Amino acid sequence: MTDATAPGAVPSGAGQGSLLARDTRTAKRNAAEGRFKIYGLVAVCIGIAALIVLLTSILTSGLSAFRQTTIDMQVTLDEERLDPSGARDYDEMARVTTFGYAPLLRDGLQATIAAAGIEADLDPGDAMDLISDESIAQLRNRVLDNPDLVGQTIDLTVLASGRIDGFYKGRVSYASAELDSNVSPEQLRLAEALEERGALRTGLDWRFLTAPDASDTRPEAAGLGVAILGSAYMMLIVLVLALPIGVAASIYLEEFAPQNRWTDLIEVNISNLAAVPSIVFGILGLAIFINFAGLPQSAPIVGGLVLTLMTLPTIIIATRAALKAVPPSIRDAALGLGASKMQSVFHHVLPLAMPGILTGTIIGLAQALGETAPLLLIGMVAFVREYPDTPLDGGFFDPATALPVQVFNWTQRSDPAFVERASGAIIVLLAFLLLMNLTAVFLRRRFERRW
Amino acid sequence: MQVSFILLSLAAIGALAFVTARHRAIASVGGDARRLHSLPIYYGLNGSIMALVPALALLVAWMLVQPLFLDGAIRSDLSDSVLPEGSAMGLVVSDVRRVAEGLESGPLAQSFIAGDFADATPEEVGRMLVRGGTALGAPLTRPVLDAAMEYRTTSRTLRWIMGIAVLAVAVIGAAVAIHRSEGSYRARNVVETGMLGLLMVSASIAILTTLGIVMSMLFETANFFSQYPFTRFFFNTTWQPSFSGRGGASELGILPLLWGTLYISLIALIVAVPIGLFSAIYLSEYAGRAFRSVAKPTIEILAGIPTIVYGLFALITVGPLLRDAIASPLGLGNSASSVMTAGLVMGIMLIPFVSSLSDDIINAVPQAMRDGSLGLGATKSETIRMVIVPAALPGIVGAVLLAASRAIGETMIVVLGAGAAARLDLNPFEAMTTVTVKIVSQLTGDTDFNSPETLVAFALGLTLFVITLGLNVLALFIVRKYREQYE
Q1: ipTM of model
Q2: Where are the domains of chain A?
Q3: pLDDT (tens digit, 9 = 90+) per residue, A348-396?
């Protein structure tokens, strides 16, 4: 007699009704099943929603950084003020500071206001606050570079000041201007009047991508030029160092390394380095490259070296996977035809593994491009206005900043206009990352072979 | 002798050695390359390698040792009496080095060679140097200037000796290789041994990096503990560095920082683990092919976003939202940066990390176990809860530990989202700070490398390194042990 036929073995809760009718327990189990499935779906949706919220929040606050409010005006470059000697000598003209140029712009603005027929009850000094201080410096540089302009009347498009710019981007309103010591409602009214007459407009402006950083009080002029250049230099260094070293290390480990303690040690080290917090690499860079080797602070060369060390494990792991994917028959065929082991690897295995290696390298570079913490420690957070030289002139040793560090730098400033700049910089960073990842996907799709 | 000139000369010698060695090998067999032991290119490569590798090794070694040697020389030159009040030896030494560089490369270089300033006072020279773009820590004094002149002459002489030595080594190497290039010489074997050596050196850079990390932090940490007792570092509950008053006035206890780190990581894990785990289960067990092929890469995009982006997100969106919607109305605090802000955002960052690791582990559970459970009448969710998750549990624990180590070492999110106040508090809507935030704040800006306030960052870094390393090793151990069960 088996348990199955024993009457007592029938579970009390089940089997009382027909198989076709649902009993309460089945209903409960099915409900639990449905709930469980919904939990999973909700989790996936939370993940996707988080991504969408993150991206929209950055996009909405950052896209306006690519637009800029400018004012068109005519400026008479008065010889009396700019070059009293009349000799057009650079050193003489350089003695006229921005204070000498400000009245020219002020008069130009007044003339524009008058020509537009606007009756403003602002004194010229307050009206002048519509114009960014940076524009005065830009005008001075333009005149110094091109002394023949002195004495002429030129058409000039100048940046509007940060608050006026903010007015057109929704950061500043009449209500907030009442409370703000940096801008008054009258100035906003003047700006609106100028806009009606077509002298002031807000439009796309690529200077955000090319201009260098600007000081705390001039958010409207701050740009990413130095940061993009610094990041590009570092990526170049990472590429030149990490790709050959990473490939060489992977070839050794995958093709030649004997099974011994030393090899084990290398393997353990690589997998651990991949998980070391990035800030620890910054400490390494500070202690070894700057304090010990005496390399300059804030220089792309130090950043490049630190990022190289960080990227190496990624590249090594990807390269080893690519080498592993090349079937042994290729090696056997090469060896069978009389190639040496080294020849079989360099002439046959490596070229076949190249798409996988490049994909891994690009992904490693993308990681390095977004890395911030180690760069803070090696001084790249400094305020840098000068573009670094070209690499051939020692530009790797000039001070520069990097894209993600520039973002951090801007978040530390008090003027809310810098939040827009920081978000705009993030958009640029994400655009570069997207481009790199798409290249990697393309390479993989186009060239990867499956055996 | 300029380093760039040395490098160019080396390149020329290498190229010449390549051509000559190849030519000589072919000539030695009467132009019939088939009678050579190796292909002609290997004779050329052998020439280049023999010329360049020893010379470059010497160059690198020399450039590493020379500054150490010169620093030692300066230190013995300058007696303690020349130290200005309250200044450290290291600062004076770096001043000497900067003055020497200014004399060497600044606009003054030419006139100095002519000896024009023999009787100028140090102050005048200092002013001229500053105008030439050299930054000086302290006004130039006679002993420092003398030491700088001495430094400059010595380093010039050493540079010349180095250049000659390096080029001589290159020429000798090339000559030996060219001399050996004859038909019977096994050039390919030599070249391949050399290449294998290079490959091995590249692979060993990983070990060097680890060594560099550990050594740099150990040295500075030892330095720190010689100035600050380690019992106070590990057991003190206040963190109050003072930058104005040197020495004993600072309270550098790690406990508030560790508390902030662990609290934020805990919140991050509470967010990330359920969401990540349920996503992984849904995507691997329930989702259809089409949904999966869209949702999985979308979630993984989160892993490719740099942490500074999450930091900015915390700063401009999540922080103000939490403050205005929850913290302020409930009277829990009015700070936008808080443990909750940083924890939530870090949790989002960790979702793809947990989900893709768990996904791999769930997929590794053999199909037979699912089939067995379903065959016995269990529903899908019962199978997952009773069979798959228990079977995958060690792997999931490993994934959670890896995520925890990631959370503890994360920097930018907490720098922008958690605040800078070190406190031991339970309220998650208060600003707190972490180990990584303090490493950044102690090491950025103008820092004096001999004060405990700066050196403490290295002790913090070492603590962080040890904790994350421990978690990683534990996680890998658990994951590996689990994997073996089904293979």
Answers
A1: 0.88
A2: 66-205, 225-447
A3: 999 999 988 999 999 999 999 999 999 999 888 878 888 888 877 777 8
Domains of chain B in start order, with CATH, are 3-185 (no CATH), 247-486 (1.10.3720.10)
- Residue B104 near residue B152 (C-beta atoms within 8 A): yes
CA within 13 Å, CB half, A68: 26
CA distance B96 to B78: 10
Q: Which CATH superfamily includes the segment(s) A225-447?
A: MetI-like (1.10.3720.10)
Condensed to tens digits (0 to 9), the pLDDT of residues A193-249 reads: 888 888 888 888 888 888 888 888 888 888 899 999 999 999 999 999 999 999 999
Most confident of A32-36, A132-136, A398-402, B216-220: A32-36
The reported pTM is 0.86
Considering only CB atoms, which chain A residues are within 8 Å of B472? 272, 275
Q: Residue written as tokens 């560095």?
A: B241
Instruction: Please check the confidence at residue A9 and state whether its pLDDT lies above 60.
Output: no
The alpha carbon of B391 is separated from its chain's Cα centroid by a whole number of angstroms, namely: 38
Contact B445, B474 (CB under 8 A): no
Q: Does B380 touch chain A (CB under 8 A)?
A: yes
- What tokens does B198 get? 């290079």
Which helix (H) or strand (E) element contains residue A70?
strand A67-76
Q: Which residue from B409, B28, B184, B286 is spatially nearest to A36, judged by alpha carbons?
A: B286
Report percent pLDDT > 90 for chain A: 37
Interface of A with B in 266-325 (CB under 8 A): 266, 269-273, 275-284, 286-288, 291-294, 309, 312-313, 316
